[in-house]
């Protein structure tokens, strides 16, 4: 076994026990269990108090302004039990998943190349910064003129918003690697491909997961804006229709739906992060 292969084997090795925290905890938990484990009674109490305050305010407000909690829950139940409405929510969900995956596929290689090559960094980084400076609504207006296909419009907007976040997170991950660590790997005779596979990619995976969690929150908001302006389907279209009819319970029910989607996607990403990065024990003993 060569020195490089030995180093690679050691990099892939599992952490030794003794930290007091089971490093394979997320691997033994299902996603549902992992989600439940993350819910605290304090959070439940806080939201219950918010619901009580909302309900009290609804007694002195018109229903189109502040509807009661029971009306919101009724509208939410209608969404999940009516296929015509549920399908619109699923359409937005699929668009969001596709955009997040595309931002990883596009953003990670660009961030790696920017971090590895000063020349690529000098040319590409100003363009990425320029793209990040364009507001989401401007992109929506632009794509309405550029493209006729709805899915292409929404996908392009989401990619322009989410991909730069992944790019700069990975880029910062590469730049934060200690030069001594890089020099040490080079002393074992690692070539460029081995440098990426043994050192850079394992190191920047945590930054890629961080970018993905950020993109989940950003994407949930952007997909609604894109659908609201230029799509005949999805939650944005349903919100536009509910706004025209002053259906505030339905508007808030769709808002609740998107919050649940956001929490579920964040939970899935954190669960995957815990399985992929088993070696990393976060502060406080939580994976």
Could you please describe the fold and organization of this structure?
With 287 residues, this protein is mainly alpha-helical. It has one domain (87-287): Orthogonal Bundle (MetI-like fold). Helices cover 78% and strands 0% of the residues. It contains 13 helices and no strands. Helix 5 (69-81) crosses helix 6 and helix 8 crosses helix 9 (150-175). It is globular and about 70 Å long.
Please give a quick description of this structure.
The chain is mostly helical and 287 residues long. It has 13 helices and no strands.
Task: Furnish the topology, listing elements before pairings.
Blueprint lengths: L2 H10 L12 H4 L2 H7 L3 H18 L10 H13 L1 H34 L1 H15 L3 H11 L3 H26 L3 H9 L4 H39 L4 H10 L3 H29 L11
Helix pairs in contact: 1-11, 5-6, 5-13, 6-7, 6-9, 6-11, 6-12, 7-9, 8-9, 8-11, 9-11, 11-12, 11-13, 12-13
Fraction in helix: over 70%
Number of helices: 13
Overall number of structural domains: 1
User: Strand fraction band?
Assistant: under 5%
Radius of gyration: 23 Å
CATH class type: Mainly Alpha
